[in-house]
Structure formats: structure tokens, C-alpha cells
Specification:
This protein is of the alpha/beta class and 313 residues long. The chain has helices spanning 3-21, 23-26, 69-82, 96-99, 117-128, 145-152, 217-221, 265-278, and strands at 52-57, 86-90, 104-108, 132-136, 141-142, 154-157, 167-173, 187-191, 198-199, 206-212, 228-237, 248-253. Strand 5, helix 6 (145-152) and strand 6 (154-157) form a beta-alpha-beta unit.
Length: 313
């Protein structure tokens, strides 16, 4: 390169440096989009942390295809995990440590109303801070329906004839605008319905669907044939004043005697929305199956497929 060429190259480099230094004045930067919104106002479950669900199940009872609590623990751990939830569970009542980071406890266990004083204390602490509950089938059965009805809104006493056994359960949706019941219409399943209930009076339940008691021997003996009884409802209550205490939500579906009904599209969608609602999330937060992440194990499970205490299914 000649001396003249070298000088011209240096001049061009100096001019370029001057333009870069004056960048904003010479050429305004392109406008940047605002950061994405966070929280429920953003309009989607993707902006929220995973819903943390604990499934409290029990040992298998009744005939084949009925009251299959361990199968529910296995199946719904997968169903909920596939929809972005973080799932733990077991066959014993969860400890205070188990419940410390839980948003919703789903109970599908026969006679779950039988609880030790330690279990009651753990449950009380959990719902006082606003933890949600979902009660399925005979989870609300126990020795003291007055107590359990104060927790989930309604309960039945163990040992009484207060059921229809296997029969048609014709649902009448009475709260069609409630987010849990969105898109649902009246339908009938074969299962078991309960009557002779103990109800909370302060506050009262919000009835989502009722059913007329079928003409079965057990209903005949109790003169309950034709009685219209709530079978699906919500319950909201606060046990402690703010800011330390938070209101909690409970959702109850009284069926689930026949395990096959959990696969009914209307039932499954309703339960997913009920779990989301009890966890104070948008009703559709669990409606979408999400791509699997990582290898081997799913999120929220131990190698045996359950978390918390107890034996996995």
C-alpha cells in the first residue's frame, strides 16, 4: 500500500468512528417493544407459576372398577403434570411440611373425615393461609359431619344409609355461568349419589349442580326417592383475618364411585377447572396438555411417581 493510500484509510476509519460516537444523533434507534406483562392480568396461565397440587388418596376398596383411589393417584398425577402442574401425593394425610408449598389438596379417599388431631391441625393451618381443597365422592364421609361440613360445605355421617348405591345420577346444572361449569349441559351418569347431608349454614355452599335421587332400595328405605340434592358445589370461607389469613376455596364432586366416570369428557374437564378454581387460578389453567420437558421423570414426582408421604400407586 502507498503512503497516500494508508493516509486515506486512516481518514476513513476516523470518520466512521465519529459517526458511531454520534449514533443516536445521526440515526434514532428502533423502538423496543414493552416487556411482557406478568400475573393473571396478562391473560394466560403461562405467566403464572405452576399450580402445586397434592393428591391425598387411599387404599383400594369395593369391587373391581369402584373406589380405585390408588389408580386415581397414578392417573391424575400424570394428567395434571401433563398440563403444567407440579404434583405430589400419597396414601396418608400429608404432613405440615408436605402442605407448606401446596396450592390445592385433592382428596379421593374413603371416609377421609376420619382424621387425627395432628391431621386436623395441619389441615387448619393449611386452609387458614388460603390453601384450596377438592373433595371427591366419599371423601366427605366420617364420624363428625358437622366438622367436615365446616371445611368443605357439606358432609355425610359414616354408618348411616345415605346413598343410592349404583344408579343413574341425572345432573341439572344450576350455575351455568360459573367458570367450573362452563360449556356444560345437563347429563346423566351411572354412579352413586348421597342424601341426608349435613350442610354448612354460615357460609352456605354455592350449588353448581343437583341430582334427583333414584328409586333404589336404600333410597326407598329412607324415603329419599325423588329428593333433589346438591351433588356438585363450591365453598368459600376465611378462618383468619387478613393479612395473616386468606380465604380458601373448596370444590366438591360427590360422585366417583365408578372409576370409569373420571374419564368422561364432561367430568374430566369439570374436575380440571375445579382444581384450577380451588387454586385461585383461571378456570382454564389446566385445560391444555403441554409438551413434555426434560428426560426420564415428570415434574413434581419422585421415582415411584408420587411425592409426599405414603406409598405410591
Amino acid at each position: 500500500m502507498t503512503i497516500r493510500g494508508f493516509v486515506l484509510t486512516l481518514a476513513a476509519a476516523a470518520l466512521s468512528t465519529s459517526v458511531i460516537a454520534q449514533g443516536p444523533a445521526a440515526q434514532p434507534p428502533a423502538a423496543q417493544p414493552p416487556p411482557p406483562a406478568q400475573g393473571p392480568a396478562a391473560g394466560g396461565p403461562e405467566t403464572l407459576p405452576p399450580l402445586r397440587v397434592h393428591i391425598y388418596a387411599g387404599l383400594k376398596t369395593h369391587a373391581e372398577g369402584q373406589h380405585d383411589y390408588p389408580q386415581f393417584l397414578a392417573d391424575w398425577s400424570k394428567i395434571l403434570t401433563s398440563r403444567g402442574a407440579y404434583v405430589t401425593g400419597g396414601l396418608q394425610f400429608p404432613s405440615a411440611k408436605d402442605l407448606a408449598s401446596v396450592d390445592v389438596m385433592v382428596i379421593y379417599k374413603g371416609d377421609a373425615g376420619y382424621m387425627s388431631m395432628e391431621d386436623r391441625a395441619n389441615l387448619d393451618s393449611y386452609i387458614r393461609r388460603g390453601g384450596g381443597l377438592v373433595s371427591l365422592h366419599d371423601a366427605l364421609c366420617g364420624p363428625e359431619p358437622e366438622y367436615f361440613s365446616s371445611v368443605v360445605g357439606g358432609a355425610k355421617k359414616h354408618g348411616e344409609v345415605n346413598y343410592t348405591l349404583e344408579a343413574e345420577v341425572p345432573y341439572t346444572i344450576v350455575a351455568t355461568s360459573h367458570p367450573i361449569m362452563q360449556g356444560m349441559s345437563n347429563f346423566t351418569i351411572k354412579d352413586e349419589a348421597f342424601f341426608k347431608m349435613t350442610w354448612s349454614s354460615a357460609p352456605e355452599i354455592t350449588v353448581l349442580a343437583t341430582a334427583t335421587m333414584a328409586d333404589t332400595p336404600s333410597a326407598q328405605g329412607q324415603k329419599a326417592v325423588g329428593e333433589v340434592v346438591p351433588q356438585i358445589w363450591t365453598f368459600e370461607r376465611s378462618l383468619a383475618p387478613a393479612p395473616t389469613g386468606q380465604p380458601y376455596r373448596a370444590f366438591v364432586w360427590m360422585q366417583g364411585h365408578n372409576y370409569s366416570n373420571f374419564a368422561d369428557p364432561q367430568i374430566q374437564g369439570m374436575l380440571l377447572r375445579g382444581i384450577s378454581w380451588a387454586g385461585k387460578r383461571p378456570a382454564d389453567a389446566l385445560s391444555t396438555v403441554r409438551p413434555a420437558r426434560g428426560g426420564g421423570r415428570g415434574r413434581g414426582t419422585n421415582p415411584q411417581g408420587t411425592g409426599g408421604r405414603g406409598t405410591g400407586a
